[in-house]
Specification:
Blueprint lengths: L9 E5 L4 H12 L3 E6 L2 H15 L3 E5 L5 H13 L6 E4 L15 H29 L3 E5 L12 H20 L6 E7 L2 E2 L2 H6 L2 H7 L6 E2 H12 L9 E4 L4 E3 L2 E2 L15
Parallel strand pairs: 1-2, 1-4, 2-3, 4-5, 5-6, 6-9, 7-8
Antiparallel strand pairs: 10-11
The site of 2-hydroxyethylsulfonic acid has 7 residues, from loops.
């Protein structure tokens, strides 16, 4: 099968200041794709933009953007319109989990942040990007889901709920866009070693321990799959890819060397 070249296209990647988003930016840049990279930590984005534009001779536009804030999303897309930058590929990657507290013990503000970022933020950015995609009748939206969107574990509650929502939204959007040429894909990873667990637990040691005793996925593994989705011929739509580390048998079972029990992998208190 002949691959579809995305060289010369423009991809907007949310949450490009770290982990999977950053790896997607690096890989897409290496393929000659112009970038709009967004996140809250603008210093990181500016350093990345400098590096990628110099290395790959592509245009990289860094934008400070908190996806929770619909006014910021609207302003970012106004700016892009003014600059005549049209988005061909949107990678909805920005997201986070906060804690593995059981629902009955949880902090309400953590729920707000997860729902506002992982669900509402994704919706705001998607709707804004769709305007010009629909006008041009082309484009590709690639959402970062999770295996936590396919099952549940104790303490996963609201994070898991948001990723179930990403799965439902990806499917719904594919249906809503029938009759257009726009593609919608979801990439759903298992355990990937990024800053994700550090953010989740606000505890570097605990985060480090979570990835010990097995080979977790790395951000580049996921970027590779995002690129795979984007480079299929236009009549092919990868609806969903689920990927686990080889040592992870299910959402709740990671085989760690020397560990007697495999269960409750998220609650290593
Ligand atoms: P990281 O913590 O390394 O990266 C998360 C990114 O999201 C950062 O760039 C962060 O940027 C950005 N982000 C968080 N909140 C916001 C916000 N309000 N507005 C804009 N950007 C935001 O984690 P990962 O790379 O692992 O996570 C990326 C995606 O992959 C997430 O959606 C996550 O749920 C998903 N995922 C991760 C897995 C894993 O095991 N790591 C497994 C399955 C899915 P900044 O803080 O600068 O705003
Ligand atoms: C992250 C994967 O299993 O830690 O989405 O929730 S998990």
């Amino acid at each position: 099968m002949k691959k579809y070249s995305i060289s010369g296209q423009t991809a907007l990647i949310t949450g490009a200041s770290s982990g999977i988003g950053r790896a997607c930016a690096e890989l897409f840049a290496s393929q000659g794709v112009h970038l709009v990279i967004t996140a809250r930590r603008i210093d990181r984005l500016e350093a990345l933009a400098e590096k990628l534009s110099t290395t790959y001779k592509i245009k990289v536009t860094p934008i400070q953007l908190d996806v929770q804030k619909k006014e910021e999303v609207a302003a970012a897309f106004e700016f892009l319109k003014k600059e005549k930058i049209a988005i061909d590929i949107l990678v909805n990657n920005a997201g986070l989990a906060l804690s593995t507290d059981k629902l009955q013990d949880a902090k309400l503000e953590n729920w707000d942040v997860m729902i506002d970022t992982n669900v509402k933020g994704l919706l705001y950015v998607t709707k804004a990007a769709l305007d010009s995609m629909i006008e041009r009748n082309s484009g590709h939206i690639i959402n970062l889901g999770s295996i936590a969107g396919q099952g549940c574990y104790a303490g996963g509650n609201v994070y898991s709920m948001t990723k179930h929502a990403v799965k439902a939204l990806s499917t719904s959007l594919r249906l809503d866009l029938q009759g257009t040429k726009i593609r919608v894909s979801e990439v759903a990873p298992g355990a990937v070693e990024t800053e994700f667990s550090e953010v989740r637990w606000d505890d570097k040691e605990k985060a480090k321990k979570f990835y010990q005793g097995f080979a977790p996925l790395v951000a580049e593994d996921i970027a590779d799959l995002v690129l795979y989705c984007a480079t299929r011929p236009l009549h092919v739509n990868i609806s969903e890819i689920t990927v686990y580390p080889q040592a992870q048998g299910s959402l709740t079972d990671i085989y760690r060397e020397g560990q007697s029990t495999l269960k409750n992998v998220h609650n290593q208190k």
